[in-house]
From TrEMBL:
Residues 150-231 form the Beta-ketoacyl-[acyl-carrier-protein] synthase III N-terminal domain. This is 3-oxoacyl-(Acyl-carrier-protein) synthase. NCBIfam families: PRK07515.1. Transmembrane segments: none annotated. Residues 282-371 form the Beta-ketoacyl-[acyl-carrier-protein] synthase III C-terminal domain. Signal peptide: none annotated. The keyword Transferase applies. Pfam families: ACP_syn_III, ACP_syn_III_C. It comes from Shewanella japonica. Keywords: Acyltransferase, Transferase.
Length: 373
């Protein structure tokens, strides 16, 4: 089997930032207007009054302080509460292709490669803006990569699962260099009227190059020592958005067509699965957790990450051991652990080990053990 490396990574950060305070102001204005409009039903007990959100709660419960979005117009308007993203003609580059290419160009530059050196392109993210033709094929044409391209969706584990696919393809020889791109445009799927989740997501794009070790020229390369996936069905993180929605017009616009979750249940159920999954992988690889210089973890919730860090490494851990990016970026679905990897790997020297790990809807867990070349 061919040995495999990740030889470059890239990050595209959208132009607009939204703070917790801005979101909360808009949400609370919506709540006040709703409660005033429905005061009679609320007073008679027929309807529950909506409660205010708070920036302090958001930061304490999640670690999120702000998020980036591609389009800010509309999000903070209490009468709109969604990004107003204009439709584009079919011959224009889609938004996902546009931001995916920006991240991919950085990853190629780090890997010292050109687009024509790539065979497959995999676009992996929580949502694609259309079903077909694949965003990956659009990117293939726009960048001039060779071979083939496809999209895949595994919610928050899309990036790690796609890296596993890429690693398998390179190991077996069906590909030599794969571009994995994660254009995560989550903001259109946020229910900005839902107190429990209005603050959770942001937009971003990340990319990595996965290539045969014997071909790699980049000084940024990391050997892939182990890559594993795990899934277990759960309805606790769900979006019912899909191509069949319009066939039931009475329900097509209901809130279940947007992101919704049982955050507490996710916390309780997913953590033990993550521990078990990582224990098994580390035992198989005969690696002790304290050998990791860094954990590049999924970025959904700071408290959840701290549980994973403490379970693996104990209490006395510096912040740099498991860097947090969700304070600035919020939850960016599958891109979160790749942002952490991209921003926090420059201090690695030959032989240093790191763990890239995602977890989320499905449930799904993807974990990749990397060693600096
Ligand atoms: N502002 C103020 N208070 C709020 C609030 C808001 N926006 N949202 C909820 N609250 C209140 C609740 O009403 C509740 O009040 P109560 O105790 O009086 O009933 C209290 O805060 C705690 O709510 P809870 O939903 O239990 O908060 P939490 O500590 O579980 O934090 C999440 C919520 C979503 C941040 C957290 O559960 C989480 O991130 N879980 C992991 C989810 C995950 O990883 N998902 C993957 C997504 S891809």
């Amino acid at each position: 089997m061919n040995k495999v490396v990740i030889s470059g990574s890239g990050l595209y950060t959208p132009p607009f930032s939204v703070s917790n305070e801005e979101l909360v102001l808009s949400f609370n204005t919506y709540v006040d207007e709703f409660n005033a409009q429905h005061s009679t039903e609320i007073e008679s007990g027929g309807l529950a009054a909506l409660s205010h959100s708070s920036a302090e709660f958001i930061e304490k419960a999640s670690g999120i302080k702000s998020r980036y979005v591609m389009v800010k117009d509309g999000i903070l308007d209490p009468k709109v509460m969604m990004p107003l993203i204009a439709d584009k003609p079919s011959d224009a580059l889609s938004m996902q292709a546009e931001i995916g290419i920006k991240a991919a160009q950085q990853a190629l530059e780090q890997a010292q490669l050109n687009a024509e050196d790539i065979d497959p392109v995999i676009v992996a993210c929580a949502y694609t803006q259309r079903s077909y033709p694949a965003i990956a094929i659009e990117i293939q044409q726009a960048m001039g990569t060779k071979g083939f391209a496809y999209d895949m969706l595994v919610a928050c584990s899309s990036a790690t699962f796609a890296i596993v696919n890429a690693v398998n393809a390179v190991q077996s020889g069906t590909a030599s260099r794969v571009l994995v791109i994660n254009p995560e445009i989550c903001s259109p799927q946020v229910n900005y009227r839902d107190r429990d989740s209005h603050f959770i997501f942001g937009d971003v794009a990340t990319a990595v190059v996965v290539e045969r070790a014997s071909l790699a020229q980049s000084e940024h390369a990391f050997n892939v020592l182990s890559s594993q996936c795990f899934t277990d069905f759960s309805n606790n993180i769900r979006s019912n958005f899909g191509h069949i929605n319009r066939c039931d017009p009475n329900n097509a616009e209901k809130p279940d067509k947007l992101f919704h979750q049982q955050g507490r249940k996710v916390f309780k159920e997913l953590l033990p699965m993550i521990y078990q999954h990582l224990d098994k992988q580390l035992a198989e690889e005969q690696i002790q957790a304290n050998e990791f210089k860094r954990l590049w973890l999924h970025q959904a919730n700071i408290n959840m990450n701290m549980f994973v860090v403490r379970k693996l490494l104990g209490d006395n851990v510096t912040k740099l051991k498991a860097p947090v990016v969700l304070d600035e970026y919020a939850n960016t679905a599958s891109a979160g652990s790749i942002i952490a990897f991209h921003k926090y790997n420059q201090d690695f020297t030959t032989g240093d080990l790191g763990l890239l790990c995602s977890f989320g809807a499905g449930y799904s867990i993807g974990s990749i053990i990397l060693e600096k070349t």
